[in-house]
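Record type: monomer structure entry
Structure origin: computed from sequence
Chain ID: A
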Amino acid sequence: MVSVTIDSPNLAIGPQWDDLVRRASSNVFMNPAALKAVCEADLAEVRMMLAWEQGAESRRLVGVWAMQLRKVAPFWPVFLEALPYNYAFLSSPVIDPAFVDEVIAAFFVAIEATSSLPNVLSMKAFDAECPSYPAMLKVLAGRGIKPLVLCEHARPFVTREFGVKRAGSTRKKLRQDWNRLTALGAVDVINERTPAGAGQAFETFLALEQASWKGARGTALLSDPGDAAFVRKLLRELAAGQDASVALLRVNGEAVAAQVLMYCGATAYTWKTAFDARYAKYSPGTLLIDRVTDELFAGPDIFAINSCAAETSFMAQLWAGRRAMVDLLVDIGPAKSLRYHMEAGRQLGYERLRDVRDRLRGRLGVPTAKKLVPATRQA
């Protein structure tokens, strides 16, 4: 039997979370430590759904799905957004595969039964290859509900068994760039997963990002004091459980590229990257990702890496692996509400505007993300 509780995030379930992610599909953005940082920073109003297997002696955590209560304007109806906060890039729940059908059904029942929660769910960047997706479609079909598919896309994704490009022009260029960089002096890569080491390296990342074009445009994390405070807390909370680190590529001891990494179960996430523009001709960010990929797969813990990036990102040049993703909107109530129709109109309008933008970029020769993807290899 599965029961669901709904509450604000807290760290009390830390041990149960650690146990769950050893056997469940991964999503680092659902980590209770990250969600606690969100609430303390007052970044979003998060509701955390916890599914419990009720045993004879004790209960066991078998599912976690966090969502934020969101509205896009003062008078816009509130809906549930399954990306639980800004800077989250995956909306899929974390569910024990032995209970996936029961947990998905129980989540929907719990939402519908909670009067303070809307029945409209927006699920952007949902992993279409995790077990939760077909289970969700099955449960919705049983309710006579067909979700609105707003967008299908692909994300660079690699596993130990598949996806790393070991030959070809990309590999040749990587060797050339590495050799040219090493001609400048001593080159090394460090990736310390202690809280102190991760915190210090994160400050290096923030400085590199601020000095880049993002800083010039005002989109770097340090450009907004609130964002800076939040991501520092986020990194600190995750690093305390060794769930975050920052890899640095250094030349003569000076960092020329930084990659923020997050970890959940056997999956690593390449969350944010920055590099020194003075070294741009050596492709330092690409070199760092390439080295970190090999380093992570050489260890005993990581079996997959999620790029958190669009298919047009530089990681697509490194990895042949792709993960199918989907953006969905659904009303789990007995009928589609005005709230649903308003949000559907807004999101469909946004997608049409993005299509116009992409067509204009295409005429100018600017690469754009692929909107529809064929069946991809299961990763």
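Annotation 1: The mean pLDDT is 92.
Annotation 2: The two ends are 31 Å apart (CA to CA).
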